Amino acid sequence: MELDELETRLDAAADRLARAARALPGLDPGSRPFGADGPGRLGELGRAMSTQFTAALDARDRAAGSAGSAVAHLGAGMRHAAAGYRDVDADRGGQSPAGGGA
Amino acid sequence: MDLLDRVYPPASDLLSRVDRALLSLGAPPGHPVWSVLRAVGASPADAVAHFVALDPGVLAEAARAVRTSTSEWHEIVAGLPRSIDSQGVAAEAYVNAWPGIATHLEDLAGGLDDTSAFLGAVADWMARSRRSLAGTLATCLGSQEALMLRAGELSGTSHAVIVSAADLGAQVLAMVSHCLDDGWQVRDRFATVLTEAGPVDRGPAPSVQSGHRIDVR
Asked: B34 Cβ partners below 8 Å, 6+ apart?
């Protein structure tokens, strides 16, 4: 696989990660199905369950953000490297594709 | 429609009588109903109505949606190569960084699986509680105490009516209290869903070794 193709695949992966991360909050059914509006200790339990679920989703959301940032960073690195190879090829008038490696 | 949906309509009148008797006539000092009232913090009728309103199907459906979303993360991992044919600094940077990113995404998918399992466990707890409560209500409906409450005059001060209401209230709230303990255990058992993934390990920076040479011809 050449760097150009890898760069494209990393960009596509970063886009998918961002989309999947945006979809995470939509998976929260809200506090009511947990019984958060119940009386006494029953409502307390429902709120605790709902809070735990929301916090778990938030943790996954932060993890998705870190992964998206790392993939985008890697993609930018590959893009930078591929551009460098293309510049070297252009300077020496060669036709070899990016990705041969330095 | 589960057992609670079937038992609740005939039981709701009895529960209202129990609540009215407890509120207007009280209960004997030292009766077990006092301790379960404190533990639950709600009257028998309100506590049962709460479980009647809970729908395990909503959370079971949410659990399925979360589980389905994890496949997206696995596909992203599978869509990128573990290594590339190229050699050099860029290729080395990729090969160094990829394992950490892949592990992070797999951990993320695993975390979502756990989150889905938590939702499923809460839905199971709701269904289990509703079944248990339905059994208790069915027992109460056929009891001597229920007969006494239906026949008794709530505005009076018949000791038998007071004790019957307290006994029925204690029986219902004891089951509610048991369901509460069960629910807290479910919540605590899945406290691990709160575990945060650490930062992505991007691997070592690519090395430029002595003797490394770039030929420009």
From this structure: B27
